[in-house]
Amino acid sequence: MKTQPFGKWNISVGLWVMAAFMIYGFILIYLRDFAPGKEAWIESYNTGAHFEARLAHVHGNLFSFLNIVFGFLLVKLPISARLARWVSGLALAGLLMPLGILAEVYLGLPFYLVLVGGISILTATILLGVGAVQMKLEAVSTTQK
Predict the structure, then answer these.
(1) How far is the C-alpha of 86 from the C-alpha of 79, rounded, in Å?
(2) Residues 13, 67 contacting (CB under 8 angstroms)
(3) What is the DSSP letter of 133?
(4) Which of 9, 64, 119, 126 could form a disulfide with 14 if both were Cys (CB 3.0 to 4.6 A apart)?
(5) 55, 49, 56, 58: which is closest to 99 by C-alpha?
(6) 28 exposed, middle or buried (CB, 10 Å; 0-12, 13-18, 19+)?
């Protein structure tokens, strides 16, 4: 079995970013339950910065998990190196979505990173699906020869 260099970064970065967003989740719990002025934070639960902060936390962990899964699949499946490179890079770029949400909330940056990240993770998912279909078709064609 050949060793696939693509995917290892996705696993590593996915685990580190997931740990960071878990810590961020603990910060959100602190703000909700223990911080001075927690009542105001609780009142804005479904609006404004509080809602956006929760979106970033959820999407950060989801996209981190997707990077771990995609990385594992890229390491294990016989997908072409060219396609694996694209899937790996686009999945990593998908992490721009939750980071972009945080940048909107805390830095006031525009939503462009959110769009780039969302489009990237969607494209990575589609390309990995294409790679899986091609892999299956190649396996069928080699057994028929």
Answers:
(1) 11
(2) yes
(3) H
(4) 64
(5) 56
(6) middle
Percent of the chain with pLDDT over 90: 74
Model confidence over 46-58: pLDDT tens digits? 888 889 999 999 9
Tokens 């992490």 belong to 95
pTM listed for this prediction: 0.87
Residues 6+ apart with CB under 8 A from 22: 61
Residue 103: both structure tokens together: 């940048």
Radius of gyration of the chain (CA): 19
Alpha-carbon gap, residue 83 to 77, rounded angstroms: 12
Place of tokens 């080699």: 142
